[in-house]
Design goal:
The protein is of the alpha/beta class and 327 residues long. 34% of the residues lie in helices and 18% in strands. It contains nine helices and twelve strands. It has a five-stranded mixed sheet with strand order 3-2-1-4-7. It is globular and about 55 Å long. 42% of the residues are buried. Bound molecules: zinc ion (ZN).
Amino acid sequence: MRIGVDLGGTKTEAVALGPAGEELARLRVPTPDDGYDSVVRGIADLVAAIEAQAGAQAPAIGPSIGPGIGPGIGPGIGPGIGIGIPGSLSPATGRVRNANSTVLIGHALDRDLAAALGRPVRVENDANCFALAEAMAGAGQGAETVFGVILGTGVGGGIVTAGRVLAGRNLIAGEWGHNRLPALSAGEIPGPACYCGRTGCIEAWCSGPALSADHARATGETLDPPAIAARAEAGDPAAQATLDRHLDRLARALAGVVNLLDPDLIVLGGGLSNLDHLYHRLAEAMRGHVFSDVFETPIVANRLGDSAGVIGAAWLWPDEEHAGGGR
Ligand SMILES: [Zn+2]
């Protein structure tokens, strides 16, 4: 059995998956708002609760069930617990950085949770959990290398190859959102300011708020992305032009990822992944920017939706790995 926990700013969700990835139990609780120690205690309680629930529902032992799993033997807990967080661990300090759940910042969440749970814990950022979930149980099943794209309030990404997150030496692999938009036109210089302190980041051009801001710059009207898409659908040329500019920028940016990583599949997540035209036009728009005479990489919608974070967390410990501590 695998246990994954998705720690969000307002809710914390846990899932227990069986040996074939089937869902045995799922629980969701509010994230405590009275400090870090409560968050750690809350996760420990949630893990205990879901193990009890999943253990009670464990399937009878059959030929496909591994040793140690089934009633009477105990729930057969896997090597460790996976936790997805909206942030990452600093390789320098081992402590949480870049988290929008600010209560986590500066804490060694993996070590503190491992101590509270008495077993190894692996913490991974939510974009990597998204990519891993879609690779193992969603739209990317069967693809060797998957690039999971988050296009929402921010632009992020995660890389999974052969069923494992490629985290990187500095734990930033896949973070393409704070590269600068390439192949700039004169009107795109210097580009919008980004919260990271740079200007013209891909995120500052291609996120949902960036799409709205671009539309506002062009038209003076502030609309959210679904409203812009609806206007374009209804024949509004200004809204269509906004979507076209966004598509072109996204194509330039994502072509850079393809030139570097050349994934077998690209899966889109986040709010803008609901923009249907991306699945019909993005690949074609990228073609001229990809350094190849053929470009046939599938660009597909996610299949797991909001569940990707918790399911990805549950897959953070591959089958062949055994207890020995997180990284
Ligand atoms: Zn930036």
